[in-house]
Automatic annotation (TrEMBL):
The lineage of its organism: Bacteria, Pseudomonadati, Pseudomonadota, Gammaproteobacteria, Lysobacterales. It comes from Lysobacter cavernae. SUPFAM superfamilies: Nucleotide cyclase. Residues 415-547 form the GGDEF domain. One of its GO terms (molecular function) is diguanylate cyclase activity. This is diguanylate cyclase. The chain crosses the membrane at residues 166-188, 195-220, 232-252, 264-287, 293-311, 318-338, 350-371. Its EC number is 2.7.7.65.
Length: 559
C-alpha cells in the first residue's frame, strides 16, 4: 500500500508540474480584435481582463487577443519556452515584442505546425526571456471552444514532458488499435453484433483522440479533413456516441428489459443523427452546444440503464456500469469546462484517453464473458440433448448419429463393427410392484454395471424405456457375443440393492455385425430381431444374428 501511495503521489506531481511553472505568468484576455499596431502599442491594455487561471478559453470562433505577463523575471539562460497545451484546432499568432514586424504563427496541424516538438502542445521559444512585468501578446483563432493551459517551461522540461507524452499516447493508441482489431476480428469470426458496435465505438473514439491530440498530422491527407474542418470532428464524435449507445442497447437488450429507456435513447440518437446531417452543411456554434446536451442525455441514459440492470442482477450491466461511470463523469467535467461552468483541471487531458482504453478493455471482457456464457448454455443444452438425464447414457438421437458415422467409417476403413441390443427382463413388473422410483434406480444400476464392462471406445445409449444399445467398433460378431455375455453376467452376478430391497434382475441381449452394403438402420433392425429372439427363447440369454449368404442377407440366421 505504501508503494501504491508513492506511485499515486508521483502521478499527481507529474501532472501538476506545468502548473508550478505557470504560476510565474499572468494571462489576460481582450474581447475584441483591433489592429495589431494598436494592441502592441498599449492602447488596449486597460481593456484586458485578468483571468484567475492561465487557461486560454475562446468564447467563440472569433479572433481574440491575449496577453501573457511575467510576474517574476524569466532569464534566457533557462531557455524558456511558451507552452500552450492541447491546442486542438487553435491557430495562434505570437507577438514577442511591441516592435515585432510580423508574428510567429503556430498550430498543431497544417502549414504552421512545428514537428520539432510533440503534439502535446504548441511550443514557442522565448530567446530573450522575459523581465518582470514584461508582456507578450497572442492573437488566437479557434475553430472549437476548448481550454488551452498556458505556461512557460525550460527547454529541458519541455523535452521531458514531450517524451512522457509520446510514450503515453503511443501506449493508449496502440491499445485502442489492438482492441479495435480484436473486436472486428471477433465480429467476423463469431458473427455477434456486439463486437461490431464495440468496433465502431472504439474506432470512432480512436479517430477522435488522434484528431484532438494532433497525431493525425502524420497523415497529411487525413489531417486536411479532420484538422481544418470542425464539421468532420463533430461527425466523428457523434458517430462514437451513436455507436456507444447502440452497443449498450444491444448488449443489455434494452428493447426487452427496459423498453421505456430504450425509447428515450432511440429518440436522442435520432436527434444526434439529425445534428449529423446539419453538421454536413454548417459549423455553427449552436450545433456543438445542443450536441453536448444530447450527449449528456445519452450518457446519463446509458448509465441509468446500467444501474437498473445491475439492480436487477443482470451481469452484463456490471461491465457497462464499470466502464461508463468514469466516462460519464469525465464527459460532464469536459462539457462544464468548455461552457465555462468551472475551472480547467490538467489531469483531464490524460484521463479521457485512459478511460477510453479502460472502457474498451472492460467492455471487451464483458462481451467475451457474455459469449462464453451463451456457449456454456449452448453446451449445456447440447449435453442435455446428447445424454440421458436419468442414466447418463447417450440419447436415442445422439446414438443414431454416432452409429451412422461409425458405419461410414467402418465401410471406408473396411473394418468390423458390431451392435448389442438389450433390455431388462420383466421391467414393467418392477415398476408395478415397487414404483417408478425403484425402476429408475434399476436403470441407473444396469447402465453403470454395463459401462464398467465396456471399453473406452464403446458407446452405450438408451434407445427407449429399458432398451439399451451398445456400439462396438472394430469388433467381429464372435467378440461382440462374448461382450454381450459379460454384460449379462455383470447383471446376474449379484442382486440389486435398492433402498434395502434386493432385486434379482436379468436381461436379454441380441447381437449383430455390420454386413457389406448394410445401413445403420438395417444393422439396428437385425440386432433388435436378435433381442426378440432371446426373449422368445425364454429370456436371460444372448442371441446372435449372423448373415450367412448374400441371398439370405435380408433374413439372416439366428444362433
Amino acid at each position: 500500500m505504501h508503494r501504491w501511495w508513492q506511485v499515486w503521489l508521483w502521478c499527481w506531481l507529474w501532472l501538476a508540474t506545468p502548473w508550478a511553472w505557470a504560476q510565474g505568468v499572468q494571462l489576460s484576455r481582450l474581447d475584441a480584435d483591433p489592429p495589431p499596431a494598436q494592441v502592441l502599442s498599449g492602447g488596449f491594455d486597460r481593456q484586458f481582463i485578468v483571468l484567475a487561471q492561465p487557461v486560454l478559453l475562446q468564447p467563440d470562433k472569433q479572433r481574440y487577443w491575449w496577453r501573457l505577463t511575467a510576474v517574476r523575471p524569466i532569464p534566457p539562460q533557462a531557455q524558456p519556452h511558451l507552452v500552450l497545451r492541447s491546442p486542438y484546432l487553435h491557430r495562434i499568432e505570437v507577438w514577442p515584442t511591441a516592435r515585432a514586424s510580423a508574428p510567429l504563427r503556430h498550430s498543431l496541424t497544417g502549414m504552421d505546425r512545428d514537428t520539432g516538438f510533440s503534439t502535446r502542445a504548441v511550443v514557442v521559444p522565448l530567446v530573450q526571456g522575459l523581465a518582470a512585468g514584461q508582456s507578450l501578446y497572442l492573437r488566437v483563432e479557434a475553430l472549437a471552444s476548448t481550454p488551452v493551459p498556458v505556461s512557460i517551461e525550460p527547454l529541458a522540461e519541455v523535452h521531458r514532458q514531450d517524451l512522457a507524452h509520446v510514450g503515453w499516447r503511443m501506449f493508449v493508441l496502440s491499445m485502442m488499435v489492438m482492441l479495435s482489431l480484436l473486436a472486428v476480428g471477433l465480429w467476423i469470426g463469431i458473427g455477434d453484433r456486439s463486437y461490431l458496435f464495440l468496433f465502431l465505438t472504439l474506432a470512432a473514439q480512436m479517430l477522435y483522440l488522434v484528431c484532438i491530440g494532433g497525431e493525425v498530422r502524420a497523415l497529411p491527407w487525413l489531417a486536411h479533413w479532420f484538422s481544418a474542418d470542425l464539421r468532420m470532428i463533430r461527425l466523428v464524435t457523434m458517430v462514437a456516441v451513436i455507436a456507444s449507445s447502440g452497443f449498450v442497447a444491444y448488449y443489455l437488450n434494452l428493447s426487452v428489459r427496459q423498453p421505456g429507456l430504450m425509447r428515450i435513447l432511440a429518440t436522442a440518437n435520432l436527434v444526434m443523427l439529425a445534428l449529423m446531417v446539419v453538421s454536413l452543411f454548417s459549423a455553427a456554434g449552436w450545433i456543438a452546444r445542443f450536441g453536448n446536451v444530447v450527449l449528456l442525455v445519452i450518457l446519463v441514459g446509458m448509465l441509468v440503464a446500467a444501474v437498473v440492470g445491475a439492480w436487477r442482477r443482470q451481469r452484463e450491466a456490471y461491465f457497462v456500469l464499470l466502464s461508463w461511470t468514469p466516462m460519464v463523469m469525465l464527459a460532464v467535467l469536459r462539457v462544464g469546462e468548455i461552457e465555462g461552468l468551472w475551472a480547467h483541471w490538467a489531469w483531464t487531458e490524460y484521463a479521457v484517453p485512459v478511460c477510453c482504453v479502460l472502457s474498451g478493455l472492460v467492455l471487451m471482457t464483458g462481451v467475451t464473458y457474455k459469449i462464453q456464457q451463451l456457449r456454456q448454455d449452448r453446451d449445456r443444452a447440447s449435453e442435455l440433448a446428447t445424454f440421458d438425464t436419468l442414466t447418463g447414457a447417450l440419447t436415442r438421437t445422439a446414438f443414431e448419429e454416432r452409429l451412422r458415422a461409425a458405419v461410414e467409417r467402418a465401410r471406408q476403413a473396411h473394418s468390423s463393427l458390431s451392435l448389442v441390443f438389450f433390455d431388462i427382463d420383466h421391467f414393467k413388473r418392477i415398476n408395478d410392484a415397487h414404483g417408478h422410483r425403484m425402476g429408475d434406480q434399476t436403470l441407473r444400476i444396469v447402465v453403470l454395471r454395463a459401462r464398467n464392462r465396456l471399453r473406452t471406445g464403446d458407446l452405450l445409449g438408451r434407445y427407449g424405456g429399458d432398451e439399451m444399445v451398445v456400439l462396438l467398433p472394430d469388433t467381429y460378431l464372435e467378440q461382440a457375443t462374448v461382450v454381450a455375455e459379460h454384460l449379462r453376467d455383470a447383471l446376474n452376478c449379484r442382486p440389486l440393492s435398492i433402498d434395502g430391497v434386493l432385486l434379482r434382475v436379468s436381461m436379454s441381449l441380441g447381437v449383430a455385425e455390420l454386413a457389406d452394403g448394410e445401413s445403420a438402420e438395417q444393422l439396428l433392425e437385425r440386432a433388435d430381431t436378435a433381442l426378440y429372439a432371446s426373449k422368445s427363447a425364454g429370456r436371460d440369454r444372448v442371441t446372435s444374428h449372423r448373415v450367412t449368404t448374400t441371398t439370405a442377407r435380408a433374413q439372416g440366421a439366428l444362433t
